[in-house]
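Q&A log
Question type: sequence-to-structure
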Amino acid sequence: MNFQNIPPVVKNLLIINVLFFIAKYILTSINLDFMLGAFYFDSPLFKGWQLLTYMFMHGSFTHILFNMFALYSFGAVIESYLGSKRFINFYLITGLGALVLQWAVQAFEVYQITGAVSIHQHILIDMANNSYQNTLQGLDQAQYLTLQGIYTTPMIGASGAIFGLLIAFGMLFPNAELMIMFIPVPVKAKYIIPVYILIELSLGIAKVSGDSVAHYAHLGGALIGFLLIKLWKNKINYY
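Response status: OK
Response body:
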């Protein structure tokens, strides 16, 4: 499939993501990750537009390369099958679902530490001054760092929506054979994609030190993708 034959929504999503990535490195005076990435809903850094814009920001060349390759590989097939209108709805809804599940996990972590999912916004001032004890008495250093990460680190990337596409592909084309890196033989989608989801779940639960990947966002996109395909099952035909 050459670029001219890529379905319109996938083509425009590829273009928009690349333009955002280029802008990030050209507009060096602006921290676009902080402006357009999605912060925790209780953070004073959260803005409404981040619900959409976070899906178009990426942290590195490898990050955008793998996401755009997956969008091109799976998205083009799914858009041709579902139609452009339903495809863009699917993509955006799974992206939002990814963010919501990530927020839910973060809210649970905040609740475990503070007893509430929302804390006073001026805690960021105390965090910046390393005087968090002034706001929340009794926190240890690990709890402080957890809250600081939740409230001051944005989530970026199209990976949640991409995982939604992976699930959709596995449901719509379960017998399609995929070539996977380091596996010398093709594997059917219905086998490899569930394994990939289980890996993400295990990584999310494990909370490996230094792992900055939002695994629960990936799972959120996959879950919403699964539910949408189930919801639309009477309006689309399965292979």
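Response note: The mean pLDDT is 85.
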